[in-house]
Amino acid sequence: MSVISSSKEAMAQARVRMEKAVEDFRKELAGVRTGRASLALLDHIRVDYHGTSMPVNQLGSLSVPEPMSIVISPWDPAAVPLIDKAIRTADLGLNPTNDGKVVRVPIPPLTEDRRKDIVKHLHKVLENHRTAVRNIRRDVKEAVDKLEKDKKISQDEQKRTLEELEKLTHSETKKIEDLCAIKEREILEVR
What we know:
Shape: elongated
Strand order of the largest sheet: 3-4-6-5
Number of strands: 6
Mean pLDDT: 88
Distance between the termini: 46 Å
Number of helices: 4
Number of domains: 2
Radius of gyration: 22 Å
CATH class of the largest domain: Mainly Alpha
Oligomer: single chain
Strand content: 5-15%
Helix content: 40-55%
Structural class: alpha+beta
Low-confidence stretches: none
Order of helices and strands: HEEEEHEEHH
Largest sheet: 4 strands, antiparallel
């Protein structure tokens, strides 16, 4: 955290850092598997292509032609077996097929047990991001307390800033919890 010289600066920094935590949570949620196909499922998969680890989406075009499958059309046909292997070893429970030109990834329906496991994972991710927001609050609170101790701000300003910080923390935590609730409903919804 950079040096904070005013309560406005402290709040601006808290807001930016907490928004980053919420955005990171959104990205994390995009990669969590639900019952339907989503290109975000493959975001974390990297393919060893000519000695370089590359994301799948940089090796070809990805599409979702139907709700239960993803099709990857590599620009280089030599990448087809590499992409196939990377998806199989990614531990996502996916079993791709290829015809030498494209890789098809059927998305199997989730079992009840798998849905519960995914929800447990989702709750761990949620708690990690809640903790991140609380840690940001703690850092900023310490900075504001130091400003007051060093007589750079008044006690009234310190109190106002800490109240504003608390409201911001609750608001950002609620955003994360709401996103989690929506994703949980998607996961548990049986089609």
